[in-house]
Amino acid sequence: MTTATKRSATELLKESSQRLRGTIGTELAAGGTQVSDAAEALLKFHGTYEQYDRDTATALKTQGLEKEYSFMVRVRMPGGRLTAAQYLALDALADRYGNATLRVTTRQTIQFHGIVKGNLKPAIAAINATLLTTQSTCGDVVRNVTTSAAPRRDAAHARLLADACLLSADLLPRSRAYHEIFLDAAPDETTGEETEPLFGPTYLPRKFKIGLALPQDNTIDVLSNDLGLIAIWEEGVLRGYNVAVGGGMGMTHNRPDTYPRLASLVGSVGPDELRALAEAVVRVQRDHGGRADRKRARLKYLVDDQGLPWVREAIGRELGHALADPLPMPAFEVPDLLGWHEQGDGGWWLGVKLPAGRIADAGTVRLRTALREVVQRYGIDPVLTPQQDVLLTNIAPRLRSAITRKLRAHGVTMAGEITPLARWAMACVALPTCGLALTEAERVRAPLVADLEAVLRRHGLERERISLRITGCPNGCARSYGGDIGLVGRVPGAYAVFVGGDFAGTRLSFKLLERVAQERVVAVLEPLLATFAQQGWRGEGFGDFCHRLGPEAALALVEGVQASAA
Ligand code: SRM
Ligand code: SF4
Questions:
Q1: Which range is least confidently modeled, 76-85, 166-175, 184-193, 407-416?
Q2: Taking 60 as the threshold, does the pLDDT of residue 119 lie above it?
Q3: Would the pTM count as exceeding 0.70?
Q4: Is there a contact between 144 and 112 (Cβ–Cβ < 8 Å)?
Q5: N or C end: fewer C-beta atoms under 10 angstroms in the chain?
């Protein structure tokens, strides 16, 4: 390991935690609604965050009452796969322990919100009983591995999913802390001192994300991962994986040394070297990643601070041989997975839009009930997408109309009935649960989409494929610096507006405006959209058009409107 001169408090905590145990066990057994700061930090490694309801906090404080504390729990499922039985079990747990909703995340998992402290252990144990885990879904470890959600029954998709599952399992910590704390497993006294062969006593400097894509399916935004792997097939044979390192979306306002970054292609490996390669990259980040400043601890900063050639050499050293050059690769595509599609084995899948990933019953739209009934009745295995949607898979052709009818009867809108903007609009959780949110995101997605749709209609752009990504802070959980339009919470009630990324996820957007009041955002974008309608080239996306204009010309177009903005 490097001899770090200064280490953050989290580093010291990890080291003294007895492999992620700390005082979690005793604290969970005690009463109350909260845990200590140390236990809170360690609990993340086991997949849970302490939160409080930010909607009620101020009013409660003025009455001298405690905030409403609860826990968010995140499940691990590489590639967003779960069985019908698992889905139904999780759905039931949302009532028993959570806030009666399931939240599909931008990394293809499910989150529960609103689990009170006394229910945390039984909830995690119950998730585990479904043969899913919450282990390492948060914390300084390898997070949920993402990959194409498309349930296409061909060799390329099958291999991609198998490799995602392999990496996900291989890169889990070996500590038995999770099993002892949440599953009452007895400590293993037969093997002497417990070791973490890959991670060591301080685990990784920061979260570490891996995604696997195909050039023809970059729905995961592979270049936003610390380690992005792109499978290259030629004439039905897997030639190898292109390796990209140093992606990440988060940044901190007012800290110019933090920034979103797309992963850089650093080389390629053969089809059977994936596991060794992933372990090698993890070891490079473990040993050389920053451990002093958590805001600059992701692999992307190591790549920029040391340079790509250095990183390439370091990976080669860990791997035992130099990385081969990247394999030739076609341009990325982003297929639309919503609606009805043939799987290639006689079965069909139906992609259903979930509003910002939230599976809930709300008013006349009983989305949660609809999905539960369809999954239960037809034994459908759902797949979760990186766009926060769900694919209902393995459907016999004769059942298609019955399933459509059932969903409609519960008020669920079918994909063919929504605009491309609504199809591709993502929003992070933000308020009221996220402790880092500066603005709303999930809760303003629908009104913002509706207002933008009206503008698009005015300019004849309603069929235009435009991706909108909204986050309540600069951490970029809905990958808001990629795509055509990014709205990033800046201060309460106002967003930084980003444009100019590309749909395929290969170019970051630029900041058009620093601070625009929520109610002015759509008006500010209108002149740009109007000019795009008149001057956009055939086949050019809105982000491409803004990129072609460049920041200065784009800003000149919106300046008049901005002058009247907050
Ligand atoms: Fe995220 C922190 C939610 C995907 C970058 N993210 C958080 C926390 C845990 C807030 C916190 O630290 O207190 C949020 C919990 C909110 C809540 O109430 O549930 C949170 N992130 C989410 C989810 C649920 C957003 C969503 O609406 O779907 C996504 C869960 C993914 C999963 O299943 O594992 C989620 N987060 C992402 C992504 C997108 C991705 O990975 O494809 C990113 C950008 C990529 C990246 O990692 O750079 C992302 N989240 C962050 C960051 C910035 C990290 C950085 O190094 O810059 C933070 C803050 C941090 O880690 O300090 C963060
Ligand atoms: Fe919270 Fe910010 Fe992530 Fe949104 S982007 S979930 S506000 S950390």
A1: 184-193
A2: yes
A3: yes
A4: no
A5: N
Burial 24-34 (b: 16+ CB within 10 A, else e): beebbeeeeeb
For residue 53, the SS3 value is: coil
CA distance 73 to 87: 15
Q: For residue 61, give Cα distances in angstroms to 31, 33, 52, 307.
A: 21, 16, 12, 49
DSSP 3-state of 128:
helix
Sorted by sequence, the CB contacts under 8 Å of residue 225 that are 6+ apart come out as 146, 209, 210, 211, 244, 247, 248, 263
CA distances from 69 to 72, 92, 247, 438 (A): 10, 22, 33, 19
Assess whether 473 carries a catalytic annotation: yes
pLDDT tens digit sequence for 371-426: 999 999 999 999 999 999 999 999 999 999 999 999 999 999 999 999 999 999 99
Least distant ligand from the CA of 223: 1
Whether 143 sits among the annotated catalytic residues: the reply is: yes
387: left (phi over 0), alpha (psi -120 to 50) or beta: alpha
* Distance of alpha carbon 151 from alpha carbon 346, whole angstroms: 12
> 138, 312, 428, 546: which is the annotated catalytic residue?
428
CATH superfamily of 422-565: Sulfite Reductase Hemoprotein, domain 1 (3.30.413.10)
Nearest atom (ligand 2) to Cα of 437: 7
End-to-end CA distance of the chain: 49
